[in-house]
Amino acid sequence: MKEKTQVIAEKDKQELFIIREFDIPRNNVFQAFTDPEILVQFLLLLIILCISIIMITEQAAIIVGATKTKKERPSALLAV
Fold first, then answer.
1. How do the pLDDT tens digits run along the chain, 80 residues long?
2. How far, in Å, CA of 25 to CA of 22, rounded?
3. Are 54 and 17 in contact (CB under 8 A)?
4. Residue 5: exposed, middle, or buried by beta-carbon count in 10 A (0-12, 13-18, 19+)?
């Protein structure tokens, strides 16, 4: 069975690709991007995912002993 989610991260690159395939009708996908109530739910999940990636990246930098100074996160991200 094929994995639904693929994570592609190449060595020595600061790029991360997350690809997810959904087995749903096209009309439902269209509705998800045109119905404001559904779009808000999708965007909230996307924001949570982005914050999680930021936190994981910062933690990984600490583990490998990165010496970069920690920049403050925008207050909008902290409010979520």
1. 466 788 888 888 888 888 888 788 989 888 888 888 888 887 888 888 888 888 887 777 666 665 555 555 555 455 44
2. 9
3. no
4. exposed
Give the DSSP H or E segment for 34: helix 26-34
Total-model pTM: 0.36
Tokens for 45, please give them: 């999940």
Q: To which residue do tokens 């930098």 refer?
A: 61
What value, to the nearest 5°, has the Cα angle with vertex 55 and ends 12 and 22? 80
Number of H helices, E strands in the chain: 3, 2
